[in-house]
Amino acid sequence: MYMAENTPTIYQGLDGVYITESKICKVDGTLGRLYYRGYSIDVLAQNSSFEEVSYLLLYGKLPNKMELESFENELNSERDIPDGVKNIIREMAKKADPMETLRTAVSALVISDAEVKDNSPAANLRKMVKLISKISTIVAQIGRLRAGKDFIPPAKNIGHVENFLYMLNGKAADAKLVKFINTMFILQAEHSSNASTFATLVTGSTLADIYSAVTSGISALKGPLHGGADEEALRMMLAIGNPDNTETYINEALAGKQKIMGFGHRVYKAYDPRAKVLKTWLVDIDKTSNGKVKDLIQIALRAEKLMVERLGQSHGIWPNVDFFTGPLYTWAGIPIELFTPLFAAARISGWCAHMLEYWEHNKLFRPLEYYTGPINLDYVPLDKR
Predict the structure, then answer these.
(1) Is residue 158 located within the same domain as residue 78?
(2) Domain of 305: which CATH number?
(3) Which has fewest Cβ within 10 Å: 78, 268, 317, 374?
(4) Which residue out of 160, 265, 272, 295 is catalytically annotated?
(5) Is 80 part of the annotated catalytic residue set?
(6) Residue 361 annotated as catalytic
(7) Which segment of 68-82, 138-152, 178-192, 310-324 scores lowest on mean pLDDT?
(8) Which of 113, 209, 272, 322 does the annotation list as catalytic?
(9) Of the candidates 59, 141, 75, 77, which has an alpha carbon nearest to the alpha carbon of residue 108?
């Protein structure tokens, strides 16, 4: 085995390694706080819109009224997707995983962008606005086709989230549903150098176009350890079935050292602030819910209570944003296979903001690996092996 004289320290998964400086997002894992450009996530979730937060992430400040209206108009004008992309969705939607369809459709958006090779900041901003707008259209159309329904063209002169729900459901959404999905988009818009953001930056650091970079982000988000965690948490709740089974299921799972999806986080050692926002929604909706939604909410709340008592203070294992997402999306009528694509439709703003910032002082990512295999082996001809 080849071994260097000085064995380096290996940080598996780049745990604890800083990759760059950024002014976009602050995750305080010790105190359980999250800030976008200095603004607390609690304040943004309560008061802001996804369009306003996207502007904040891209431009580094909250827009005034005129700037916000201009940005909203830009998004509004970019909602349509090319016929070629629609054909890809038609071909793949019922045969492939929705994230695979989304990944392919987003990468194909280059067919309608004459600026794809223009890497100037102004051109990149225009392309990013297109991506933020069009990815929601793609997700909605994937949902329509998987449900056996026809495409619904984007509406004009309504908000980003309202339009997404209209394209998905074929009717105007009520104000409470719009507010909830808007909140989800804000909570999932950004989270520092997570796996999908890092994947976006690695691809973008080669000076590949933004479509290629974002396609890498979507690919990384697909995994159950990242974007798919909320799906796994909901499947656990569905397996529990009856709220009265919750404590027995959780206790048996803990005794068997099984992972409880939706709890614990690589960064947060306190209650995830995004989960706090969603718990407020869960408690509110519980007051008027019934049937399956009521059962899922009760399972979530009872599991959260038990896990906090058992592992919160003692082990630093708290609910994360994925845990409460499933029951709430079920209430909102979002099918489980769209959870992760919808995550991508929100996180696109963060991916783009980080890419724009990183390109200001771009450096190709080229980490090292420590080789521990054999060296100087004798080559044996094929006929003598």
Answers:
(1) yes
(2) 1.10.230.10
(3) 374
(4) 265
(5) no
(6) no
(7) 310-324
(8) 322
(9) 141
Of the candidates 227, 239, 257, the residue with the CA atom closest to the CA atom of residue 100: 227
- 246-296 pLDDT tens trace: 999 999 999 998 888 888 888 888 899 999 999 999 999 999 999 999 999
What total of structural domains would you count in the chain?
2
Banded pLDDT at 1 (limits 50, 70, 90): low
- The pLDDT value given to residue 5: 64
Phi and psi, residue 219, nearest 5°: -60, -40
Q: Please write the tens of the pLDDT for every residue from 209-251.
A: 999 999 999 999 998 888 888 898 999 999 999 999 999 999 9
Task: Give the domain CATH number at 162.
Answer: 1.10.580.10
